[in-house]
């Protein structure tokens, strides 16, 4: 496949004006050294993950600008920096991108199908871009026909080349899009090879939108194209210099090692040394370093600019007279600190887009009583692995708005939540920026077991860019999990409106169209026996939800839809007097809530056994924040030398009644967790004056506290509580369906969130012979 004809070279109108005014007579020279005589220099300026951040957005502290990662310099400032750095002769440089120029955009661009972003990048003379996963948010047809082809009323096509060598047509095995683009820079033919993160294996786009495509290995496919462009055959668009634009990147700012097992690390070292620079993306990290590739002798720059136009990347390549290529150290030039003057030719485009967005977004939808927020990491950045009030709210909205399709449960993927909502009035714009992808809502027929497996898939494959993705869950549904259990066995209980989810029963589950086709590696949703596309867009659902609650202030629910529970193993399968019990709890708080901490307690038979303070420390990438450990000794005195089971038998002959009572954990917010673990609790027995002597040793006396002969009274104090040591912990089976429990061990069970804010876990069987009992 031949590359498209390079787009017509454009100059910004602002550049001509500045030159005419003499402003560009003294340009800022980048840090790279000037070329030696006979050498040719090529300057590359790049961005990645721009995501439609056309408007300036700088953080403030005490009313003063305090830029931090995630801020946006705005399109006009980016254009101004390019004008200044590229100078009066832009033929010696190029402006390129590593993908995600559009998609996941802020409201100004999103509400107008990212046309404003396409317009400003055209004005900036973007030459070529890798295809990012967000370029395919609306499917491959939208990218080909609208973005690249310019089809549609009022649509202006991208005037740059979009390239990817490893998005393949599954029928032919050949690149489905243009794999490379040749640009003439400083009189040299520079071949830009594109590559894209694994869209399918990582579930980054809706599978329906990329039907008929498959992903090739980045290193393999790039090397094929590199060979083609350097084989000496001018018919193959032979290039003098090769550059890789790859929409994939390192997970941290640390330079990857040659043994690192990720697609990106393998590409950094394994892509042929013929490629002189790697401009990366996708992970929103900021780094700039050089690495000698396998089989090479010259270090090549590897750079990523962060995201949103916070930085502008710069790579300078030098082509010697003999054709060899070397590179100066790459650098990220900060755009958000006021160094560069906004370009007056681009600012009107931004202003017009903002004005139109303000008009469209000013409509007030409703009111909420507190902030709706995404989960955060310890550094304040977004944590897609944490439970959030926003995720649960959106899930509940989508369940509510698909009730006519019979929806009972709804889930929301965290990657689909792109902004928080402040308390008070909610405008159309605020609602829209939360979910900018225009997914439709789909109602699936899923069995309880399929729901369980979908929740298990929150723990992502080792190849995924994030280790854990927390699904928002609708009201009425809740579950427990064991964070230390083996993969596939972590979900230990589920309920819907207080009733246990049955593994073979079918439930109506609402998800967005992205999840419905297995997005974000949630393959269990694809297994639905039937699915109904409601035809309702996610944003439409939220608008309608607020409309139906007009005049009301919507209360943001603060209950946890999932809790981590792990209980120490019971000796001989059951706890008795004198046994030490340890309960480890996690996921008790939201990472971004103001009212964190508090006290958690455990009781049995209404008697408190232990308390502990909740540690609200945020745990990055997961949902484990809000931890507490409860430790106590089971009340009662074992008979001398007797095991707990014998002590229990002896207690039955005493003038008390011993009943198996579940352990109930009470959280700071008032939720209660009834564990699937019981302990013996002694209560005094009142003799029945009408039918017996009250002698507890009389086997024929009703009401004496022996099994089956009366109802023991409650209320006697439970004494002897003390901190216990930690026995060895092991996980046992818990059937969330209420099926028989045969293996004692770690206990967790079902949760109740029906009408009240309470979590109730399945009661655990005391002995192998006991039948399981589920408590409400």
Automatic annotation (TrEMBL):
Residue span, 5'-Nucleotidase C-terminal domain: 379-527
Signal sequence range: 1-35
TM regions (residue ranges): 741-762
Region of interest (Disordered), ranges: 684-728
Statement: the UniProt record of this protein carries the keyword Plastid: no
Amino acid composition bias (Low complexity), ranges on this chain: 687-701
Gene3D superfamilies: 3.60.21.10, 5'-Nucleotidase, C-terminal domain (3.90.780.10)
GO molecular function, one term: hydrolase activity
Key words, A-Z: Hydrolase, Membrane, Nucleotide-binding, Signal, Transmembrane, Transmembrane helix
PROSITE patterns found in the cross-reference section: TAT
Similarity section: Belongs to the 5'-nucleotidase family.
Name assigned to this protein: Bifunctional UDP-sugar hydrolase/5'-nucleotidase
Classification lineage: Bacteria, Bacillati, Actinomycetota, Actinomycetes, Micrococcales
